[in-house]
Design a protein that fits this description.
The complex is a heterodimer of chains A (305) and B (255).
Chain A: E1 2-13, E2 16-27, E3 31-35, H1 42-49, E4 57-62, E5 65-66, E6 78-81, H2 93-104, H3 108-121, H4 136-147, E7 154-158, H5 166-179, E8 184-189, H6 192-198, E9 201-206, E10 209-215, H7 216-222, E11 227-231, H8 235-246, E12 255-257, E13 260-264, H9 268-282, E14 288-291, H10 296-304
Parallel strand pairs in A: 3-8, 3-9, 6-7, 7-8
Antiparallel strand pairs in A: 1-2, 1-4, 4-5, 9-10, 11-13, 11-14, 12-13
Chain B: H1 2-17, H2 20-49, H3 63-86, H4 91-96, H5 98-103, H6 109-142, H7 151-175, H8 181-196, H9 200-203, H10 209-212, H11 214-220, H12 225-251
Helix pairs in contact in B: 1-6, 2-3, 2-6, 3-6, 3-7, 3-11, 6-7, 6-12, 7-8, 7-11, 7-12
The chains are: A alpha/beta (305), B mainly alpha (255).
Chain lengths: 305, 255
């Protein structure tokens, strides 16, 4: 069942079309990566889904209910984590979480337990400092705790890792992996390694349109890979292999770099067959023979080309 | 209702921890204290400061002078300080985006607006009351012959004028994202009232009467129809500003 359904969403600012018929849906229990370059319309889509911005056309449904601009009732199903979450700096994490619990209408007794569980999960359980003294990473972790206070069925994360250092990013991704056991997550980003780390499905947004969507594996499979690499024990072996491969025009150009021989071919499958035959003929045992898998970066570049 | 209570508690915490309540408490208390003291001791002070060769005849101060000082100090110091302290009431939240977490948790915008307005109105009521009670106590002490006839109408009318200013402060706070804009709006609003009062037709309907004719009401111990009209107009405009502010905030883009 789809937790989030977006149909034919259009939004423009003046003459600039930010969203031009965006359509996609996010299935329950998945982490959905929403990727695109800066200004592609990711934040606009998420802001509309939260009822904070009015679309020109199109509909957004969360848990089957339509999102309306202003006080949308669908927000009771949603948790939201922006790229740089801002809190009331004069409160402590505990006080802020209590405010969020009260605002969400949680039962008093239940909320105390929930707050301590969430603060423990993000490593802020014993922090008595006021939020004004928090680092960016701590704020982001508090951001995820507050987003989960109402047990949302959908967690909307808008570039949550973009402002963090590598350690902060890693911590946040770990928390997101934990969260996905219970909550559906939509996760916008332009950091493609994060997408590979946590996302099950991906939509690529370019110039206000979804240009590709599917699972990470599907999208990678769609990008033709034509690069191959053979790693050998010694440079001498590498030289022999490179020389032997030179006579095969379909493998050109084969290039030796130390113990590595690399090249490209029209068909990766044919290349593998020739390389394995050649190694067999030369009686050379390679350390590694590989067809290079496309990275998400290549998938993305291909999609927006 | 729980969200409303929680947001009010947040507002009270904010204003306490940012020393806003403390600063206003001091200012309103000083105004309350200074008004009867200056009425009582200013003539004596002037006499001692004057050259012996200059003779000035000063009337014996009465309780009216004490309240005259009170009205003028509230208008010129306390109300101005109140507006200055609370002018970023909405702008800071717009600027930082702190409303977004509350709204996306399902807190109705009208609850946020209502909670902020409640705290402003309560603050004005409490601080004004503190100032009034201090002035009242010292006036009774220094001028025991004073009467309370007409006092509550004259003090109440200035209180009502304060409510009008607060409703304008909230409306402009909702409309503009800049924290200086509410200051300009309130300043501009008061300037318009002063300009309007040049024309007698407008003056007879103007809310400004509630802030300028207090001593007259106290002295005459009664009000005239123009003053009553001014009070009714003030109430109507206040309610209108409050409703408009709420309606605008419901549709305001928060990002």
């Amino acid at each position: 069942m789809a937790v989030l359904e977006i149909e034919q969403l259009k939004k423009s600012y003046g003459t600039q079309n930010v969203l031009d018929g965006v359509t996609f849906s996010v299935d329950s229990g998945s982490v959905y990566g929403f990727i695109g370059k800066n200004g592609a319309g990711k934040t606009t889509t998420m802001t509309i889904a939260l009822g904070l911005l009015k679309p020109d056309e199109g509909t957004v449904r969360i848990n089957g209910e339509p999102v309306t601009y202003g006080d949308t009732k669908t927000n009771k199903y949603v948790g939201y984590l922006p790229d740089v979450p801002e809190f009331y700096p004069f409160l402590t994490a505990g006080e802020y979480m209590t405010l969020c619990a009260d605002v969400s209408g949680l039962d008093k007794k239940e909320s105390k337990k929930k707050i301590s569980e969430l603060l423990e999960m993000v490593g802020l359980e014993n922090n008595k400092k006021r939020i004004r003294n928090y680092s960016r990473g701590m704020k982001q972790r508090l951001g995820i705790a507050q987003a989960l206070i109402n047990d949302p069925i959908l967690l909307i994360c808008d570039e949550p890792t973009s402002a963090l250092d590598p350690i902060g990013r890693q911590q946040l991704l770990t928390v997101l992996k934990k969260v996905k056991e219970k909550t559906t997550v939509i996760f916008s980003t332009h950091i493609l390694t994060d997408v590979e780390a946590v996302c099950d499905k991906v939509a690529i947004l370019n110039n206000g349109k979804i240009v590709k969507q599917g699972s990470v594996e599907q999208l990678k499979a769609e990008v033709k890979t034509n690069q191959w690499t053979v790693v050998l024990e010694t440079e001498e072996e590498a030289g022999r292999v490179a020389e032997a491969l030179e006579i095969h025009p379909e493998l050109l150009p084969a290039k030796q770099t130390g113990v590595k021989v690399e090249g490209t071919s029209e068909s990766a499958a044919d290349a593998m067959s020739i390389i394995l035959n050649c190694l067999h003929t030369l009686s050379v045992i390679p350390v590694r023979v590989e067809r290079k898998e496309p990275t998400m970066e290549e998938v993305f570049m291909e999609a927006i080309r | 209702m729980r969200g409303y209570g929680a947001f009010i508690q947040k507002e009270i915490r904010e204003n306490s921890r940012n020393y806003k309540f403390f600063i206003l408490g001091i200012i309103f208390a000083i105004v309350g204290l200074l008004s009867p003291l200056s009425a009582r001791f200013l003539p004596e002070l002037m006499e001692t400061l004057m050259d012996e060769n200059i003779t000035i005849i000063l009337a014996e101060p009465t309780y009216i002078d004490s309240w005259l000082q009170f009205f003028s100090n509230i208008n010129q110091i306390a109300l101005v300080a109140f507006v200055l302290v609370f002018s970023p009431v909405m702008a800071k939240e717009y600027e930082k985006g702190t409303f977004i977490h509350m709204v996306t948790k399902g807190l109705p915008r009208l609850t946020i607006y209502g909670a902020k307005l409640t705290v402003l109105l309560l603050s004005w009521t409490i601080f004004y009351l503190i100032s009034f009670l201090i002035t009242r106590a010292y006036t009774l002490y220094y001028f025991p012959e004073g009467t309370s006839e007409g006092l509550f109408i004259s003090v109440g009318s200035l209180y009502l004028f304060g409510l009008l200013i607060i409703s304008l402060l909230m409306l402009s706070g909702v409309l503009f994202r800049n924290s200086y804009a509410p200051l300009l709006a309130v300043g501009g609003g008061v300037a318009v009232l002063f300009i309007g009062s040049i024309f007698p037709v407008i003056e007879r309907w103007s809310p400004l009467q509630l802030a300028t004719r207090n001593v007259e009401v106290l002295t005459l111990q009664s009000t005239d129809p123009a003053f009553t009209r001014g009070a009714i107009i003030t109430l109507m405009i206040t309610v209108m500003f409050i409703i408009t502010g709420g309606l605008v905030f419901r549709r305001k883009a928060l990002q």
